[in-house]
Records
---
Amino acid sequence: MSTIIEVVDVHKKYGRKVTAVGGVTTKLESGRATGIVGESGSGKSTLGKMIVGLTTPTSGQVLVDGRDLSRLLERRPGRLEYRRKVQLVAQDTTTTFDSRRIVREAIRRPAQILGGLDEKAADAAVDGIVAELGIAPELVERYPHQLSGGQRQRLSIARALVVGPDLLVCDEAVSALDVSAQAVVLNLLKDYVKTHSLGLVFISHGLPATTFITDDLLVMNRGKVVESGETMSILEAPSNDYTQTLVGAYQAMEAAA
């Protein structure tokens, strides 16, 4: 197990008064899934954006192999290197797929741009990842509107994994799916993390999916990590008041199911 990303005391402020993230430190490792949970406005998605490189910390550092991510992203070679290393899967797949083109083209594109493959090799890479993830091959020949939400999300994951990243960041990736579609996506991700030593960041406002898929957990409230540790340890003995409320609600829901 090796460290992929190290987050060191990162803060993100908007203007003078709004602190979205206030002093988070953590390590993201290969072969482990880290959950980031909290209610809307807790700072979890902002933290995810800093890890992916979509926004820059106001202070603190995101380190990649000991290098500051902000510096790495200043030049095109560094940006390409990081996009190969870290991929994002978002809740909304409309920005992932062009409605005018079949899905194959969207998955093939990062294999060409980031992987440096020609069209034939990129198509082979698409077929390979689709088969590995257990996705019906005919789905990549369809347009996005011809697919269900669950199918689009699985293909979005295929697009992210086709370049062989070290870390996958999923931001509310299953929140809009029904329970059966969620189960398919979660099992797919869980298996892939273990078989490929992939690092995974799973961002969610709820505990059910997070507890199923993650090894470690960061609980965020008002921009800060109020509790962190192994997922099962936190579930069994939460120490923070906010975490206790989250876990209590989760356990009540499980008991009623």
---
Amino acid sequence: NVALVGNPNCGKTSLFNIASGSHEHVGNYSGVTVDAKEGYFDFQGYHFRIVDLPGTYSLSAYSPEEIYVRRHIINETPDIIINVVDSSNLERNLYLTTQLIDMNVRMVIALNMYDELEASGNTLDYVKLSQLFGVPMLPTVSRSGKGIEQLFHVIINIYEGGDFLDHKGRMRSEILSDLRSWHQEYVPDHDFGSHKEEIEQPRGFYRHIHINHGPELERSIEEVKRVIS
């Protein structure tokens, strides 16, 4: 039971179409994704139910889309959430990601439209970003299907293991292995800094403190500023 969650125009419906074999119209205007769309497919011996939820920028429960997505996550309790993000616009897209993390859901992040990020001359150390967020991230190009199979391999690993973090808060070794394998395949000539060192001397992947405690930290900092000013 998998749910697709992401901003409008992040390629979410394209990913849904290629995974489920559906032919939903792609776009972001009235009537395209006003309700959830549901599809089914089989992969590696698993029968998947995949739900394409309405595009939303947050889960603050102000707009109809926000309310719908939030209620689906709470009431339907998907086994895994695929947070689809536009790789070329991470700053805007990752706000929703932090809200999903706050809900303590099991999830994997599809760094979609990765080809557009590369076409702009940029690179992204997504293994390091996975480390900071404590969530597996994989590049995908939903228009062509690139990365979709690897994405569902990771989803199966998370489903089988019950979580992507172990009891010490470290990313499980098999998930980390999938990320590194895909990283080496996607960008074989780029080490992104310290990954070779990490393989030689493994370290746990811990979620960055600001992801879980950001609001409290910000409030504490403001209170300290107020007291000493």
---
Amino acid sequence: MELDSIEDAIAAIAAGELVIVVDDTDRENEGDLIMAASKATPEKMAFMIRHTSGIICVPMTAERADVLNLPPMVANNLDPMRTAFTVSVDYKIGMTTGISAEERANTARALANDNCNGGDFLRPGHIFPLIARAG
């Protein structure tokens, strides 16, 4: 399988496109469908939901999670990969159930918006923030 360069993937993400990022065979040996949260649209979110497991995650720095008051999902993380899920959230503004592609896209964009703070989100919700690790 021929893969695109990292530079091409970064450019595609910056342009609002969806890309598949594959990990190593000694990790999960899978591909993740990703896009820039700030460019999430209902159409792209619906595609992600329909063609993946349906679990939508939004990675962020630990500092951003602190600003948004997003504590770890569990106190004692026993996941072998130590995936750092926080509590799940929905964006309050315009929210009905939080499950629609439109509302999940709104939540993803709000998580990426530096003008939003922890009070802008309901917990639990339908989007799963992840605290990114360096490296």
---
Amino acid sequence: MKFGKVQDPNSIDFTLPVDNKNTAAVLKKEGKGDLSVYVGCAKWNKQDLKGFYPKGTKDELEYYSSQFNSIELNATFYRIFPEDQFKKWYDKTPDGFKFFPKLVQNISHLKRLNEDVQPYVDKYLSSVIHLKEKLGTIFLQMHSNFAPKDFDRVIKFVEKWPKEIRLAIEFRHTDWFNDPVIANELYALLESNNITNIITDTAGRRDLLHMRLTNKEAFVRFVGANDESDYDRLEDWMKRLVEWKGQGVNQIHFFVHQNIEVESPLLSRYFINMLNDNLGTKLNLPNQLSDDLKLF
């Protein structure tokens, strides 16, 4: 993912901000519960993850899902797949695997949550539900020029979304975060409707690190800078997630992107190892990658 890419990562202060003052209050609600952790990449195709798949791998998804327990499914942004495709993906993956699909662009970027969006929502959901128990949180990514002037569209969309299906939203326009009044109204809307507030960590858009959870799910999209600092950043995230777990987070969904996606599995492996050490998880460590991926 190239969103937020900068020419010189060393010019960026990658320090994680302190939590929004309301995050702790959200995490205290209704007890702590058991912790579930899902970590994955954004894509599974061999072209993007060259060097990750052993020679002779016939089915990339089958192999990928034997190494990771989840995938951030970005392919669903570009078109609505027929239900048979979701059934095939379901059948190719093991028990416990989860897909976190992005809502189709007709909803977010073309119709922009207007009054004509519902048929696309209905069609999308009628297909994606065939992932059954392997369906993780669906996420909506709004265009960076979608501003608070259309807040009424967000309200209508969120309130109409079926409550039994988990939804997370990523906003990118700066005014959603830089105007405290708007930000608080947005967070209150998400919290009252149990919608997850995605946190995106990317070099060129530090304002997206709002650190405001709206439920007990931490959904983090981490975008590496193809730099040694990526490992330090992941260590900082590990510390924050340990704190959140202590406060009541019970779902961690963490997806690793890179400007050069081939390096994503390497970073993911490093992060998974820390999770197992610090949170007591027993996530599979993806197979050791080929030497040409060990760049730092």
